Fold this sequence. Notes:
The chain is an alpha/beta fold. The chain has helices at about 45-50, 70-75, 80-90, 105-115, 135-140, 145-170, 175-185, 190-200, 230-240, 255-260, 260-275; strands at about 5, 10-15, 30, 55-60, 95-100, 120-125, 215-220, 245.
Amino acid sequence: MPTVASHDGVPLFYEVHDYTDPWKNAPTLILQHGFGRSGRFWYNMIPYLARFYKVLCPTLRGLGSHYEMPDPAEKITAENYIRDLVTILDHLGLERVHYAGESLGGIIGMYFAGMHPARVRTLSLFAAPLIISVETQKTFTVGHPTWQDALRTLGVGGWSNAVNTLTRFPPSTNPAMLEWFSNEMAKSNVEVVIAMSRLAGKVDPSPVLGNIEAPVLGLYPSHGGALTSNKQFDILRSKIRNLKLIHLDTQYHMVHTLEPATCAKHVLYFASEYDEVPCRES
């Protein structure tokens, strides 16, 4: 897997999936995963997208089974996530990209588009809250004193098992998929994921939303789902100049996993409208 060193020496892992016509010089679309996950979790959307866009899947620093990152409590910050994105884009010679992020990856996208508006062509959000509410954080404790205690006691995979059917997936979800999902999350060091949980509990990109110049597409569960609220949607509408919100036919959080074809179609048409390039075979 390709890597590049961050500003503070952390190896940053990413993958590029490109099945576009070589002579068309297609734009790049970033797919940024959410809490505790990795670029591997985009397996089901890449086939729909990579025929028309070069798809870049970074794995957030410290996650996955590639290496052990020292001092995660110090190195897991919103500022470092943004600097890591800039490092990867500069390394690949990419001046402007489309960005699509799920959950925490969408929050990072809001920060990135607000802090580096000239580098984002369009921004797509999959069930991305503005903040992780106190109520949601309480849900994530799954009966333990804190979210962090739950992660340390259960381990990353065990915690994932505990929350999968609380907010993420319907009870009817294929058990084999849920097992795969938790096993993939379990590849990450628990201290890194704990550091992420502390960060996720306090991030709020609201102050930079007004700086976003890119058109923004929001794909959310029906009625907002478990992690978002009407109040958060009102803030998005009031601060983002060019916003399109779509509610999908599910109440569960992992909309991009549950409805990959639908989500990919919306992102393709949204991005291609900006690029004035048809995303269909002629």
